[in-house]
Specification:
Order of helices and strands: HEHEHH
Helix content: 40-55%
CATH topology: Rossmann fold
Pfam families: DNA_pol3_delta2
Distance between the termini: 40 Å
Strand content: 5-15%
GO cellular component, one term: nucleus
Number of helices: 4
Protein name: Replication factor C subunit 2
Radius of gyration: 17 Å
Low-confidence stretches: none
Number of domains: 1
CATH superfamily: P-loop containing nucleotide triphosphate hydrolases
Structural class: mainly alpha
CATH architecture: 3-Layer(aba) Sandwich
GO molecular function: DNA clamp loader activity
Organism: Papaver nudicaule (Iceland poppy)
Largest sheet: 2 strands, parallel
Number of strands: 2
Length: 99
């Protein structure tokens, strides 16, 4: 919720680190569409303040649940659903590699 954005995400974003030129810290938020409106507003402010040093990736099931001010700051990438056969094939590769 909003406390996670205000505490953990903001603290990571504001932490000073030395990176090579052109490199940024990356924050990936999974299930971002389940964040409350207040948490999204706090995230928007954090994104604005730390955009020079931090990049944000948001994964969600319904982009319409992400507030417009965040959507306008993001590049939208859509993925199609994997078929059961594709998932099974990849799982078999992992099983073979883990033997």
């Amino acid at each position: 919720g909003i406390d996670v954005v205000r505490n953990k995400i903001k603290m990571f974003a504001q932490k000073k680190v030395t990176l090579p030129p052109g490199r940024h810290k990356i924050i990936i938020l999974d299930e971002a569409d389940s964040m409350t409106s207040g948490a999204q507003q706090a995230l928007r402010r954090t994104m604005e303040i730390y955009s020079n040093s931090t990049r944000f990736g948001l994964a969600c099931n319904m982009s319409s649940k992400i507030i417009e001010p965040i959507q306008s700051r993001c590049a939208l990438v859509r993925f199609s659903r994997l078929s059961d056969q594709e998932i099974l094939g990849r799982l078999m590769v992992v099983v073979q590699a883990e033997k």
